[in-house]
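Hi support team,

I've been running sequence recovery on a batch of backbones for a student project. Most finish fine, but this one hangs at about 90% for roughly twenty minutes before it completes. I'm not sure whether the input is malformed or the queue is just slow. I've pasted the structure tokens below so you can try to reproduce it. Let me know if you need the job ID as well.

Thanks,
M.K.
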């Protein structure tokens, strides 16, 4: 059984690439399983993988490293239910030190079921990486940028993702910058929305290009912990009850009001993810750090019926209580404007605790 651990900053494209890779491998007769992971209880990514018919288990309530025994139990469960040939494990987008706390313990304690070779890919958004390498201001607090840097440093294979969003002609210059900054690192530029990009990644993994490094990251846990905590987590599930035909309008107004509020208060977005469901329609809508202008509207489909349920996962540089207020206010505004109501099923907002790995192996 092959294990591919996938890390990298919030919204860098991990889930997108894993879905593409899983579909490709499944179409070629492989059994694939996924383990998702995040700070809260109700994960958009898990729902999304399952809606794409990829067997998925999850580690909730904290990162893999601090919940290693749960990760181990979930892997065993995945083996029982799906007997996967290939497993992708996607770590929390603010998590680092994964070689020492996840990959090494897994290889040491779960042989002979798992690899080697096990791979460790780190994804990064090409636009954020470019800013960082050029020394331009980053949209996050220093300790968050520290985590961003440390994730990249740790990569077995660095995927510089969303290359389709890079202005034409800049790629070669950026590749030189990456090579200068990270000598010897295996790097690939990728568009994970294209089949070519994803297949290239799978081929790189099969060829061993992503093999997990043996060297453990040198990381200052005080700064890492501060970076993690700076990004508040919120997960919320609620249902809009609206007059027939008003579902899409309610969702659009909710997203618009929330984006406006975050912008007004100058709160940096790590990643905002929404799973929208009405009748048989299910759609993920996503706002990473560098939010597209207005084209997100086309991602919200027509929503049949009078009930629309949403799962919201938000990671924002904000005070957690304030983030919860902003999300709730946006939902109330949208419900009112659509002539409906909302029913909040679950909400949790908090600052992740200090990372305290179950194991740390050198
Ligand atoms: N243009 C472009 N967009 C991409 C690419 N890969 C991912 N995206 C978009 O980036 C957003 C975030 O993608 P995800 O795959 O959810 O990112 P993630 O790293 O799993 O995010 P977290 O799990 O929250 O850390 C989505 O809107 C994707 O459609 C790419 O190669 N090009
Ligand atoms: Mg994801």
């Amino acid at each position: 059984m092959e294990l591919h651990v996938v890390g990298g900053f919030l919204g860098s494209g991990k889930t997108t690439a894993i879905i593409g890779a899983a579909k490709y491998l499944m179409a070629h007769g492989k059994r694939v399983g996924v383990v998702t992971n995040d700070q809260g209880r109700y994960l958009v990514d898990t729902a999304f993988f399952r809606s794409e018919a990829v067997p998925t288990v999850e580690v909730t309530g904290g990162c893999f490293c601090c919940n290693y025994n749960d990760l181990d139990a979930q892997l065993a469960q995945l083996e029982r239910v799906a007997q996967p040939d290939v497993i992708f494990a996607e770590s929390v987008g603010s998590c680092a030190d994964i070689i020492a706390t996840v990959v090494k313990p897994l290889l040491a304690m779960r042989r002979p079921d798992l690899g080697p070779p096990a791979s460790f890919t780190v994804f990064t958004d090409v636009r954020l990486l470019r800013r960082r390498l050029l020394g331009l201001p980053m949209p996050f607090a220093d300790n968050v940028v520290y985590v961003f840097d440390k994730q990249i440093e740790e990569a077995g294979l660095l995927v510089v993702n969303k290359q389709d969003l890079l202005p034409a002609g800049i790629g070669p210059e950026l590749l030189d910058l990456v090579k200068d900054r990270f000598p010897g690192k295996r790097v690939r530029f990728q568009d994970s929305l294209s089949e070519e990009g994803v297949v290239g990644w799978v081929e790189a993994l099969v060829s061993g290009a992503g093999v997990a490094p043996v060297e453990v990251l040198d990381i200052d846990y005080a700064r890492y912990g501060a970076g993690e905590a700076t990004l508040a987590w919120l997960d919320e599930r609620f249902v809009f009850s609206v007059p027939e035909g008003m579902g899409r309008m309610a969702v659009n107004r909710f997203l618009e009001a929330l984006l406006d509020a975050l912008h007004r208060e100058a709160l940096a977005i790590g990643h905002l993810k929404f799973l929208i469901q009405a009748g048989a329609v299910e759609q993920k809508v996503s706002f990473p750090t560098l939010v597209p202008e207005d084209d997100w509207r086309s991602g919200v489909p027509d929503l049949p019926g009078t009930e629309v349920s949403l799962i919201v996962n938000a990671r924002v540089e904000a005070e957690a209580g304030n983030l919860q207020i902003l999300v709730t206010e946006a939902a109330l505004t949208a419900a009112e404007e659509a002539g409906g109501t909302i029913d909040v099923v679950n909400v949790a907002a908090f600052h992740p605790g200090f990372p305290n790995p179950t194991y740390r192996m050198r």
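--
Follow-up from support: It reproduced on our side and the slowdown came from queue contention, not your input. The pocket of guanosine-5'-triphosphate (ligand 1) is lined by residues 10-16, 45, 93, 123, 161-162, 164-165, 191-193, 271, 273, 286, 288 (CB under 6 Å). No action needed from you.
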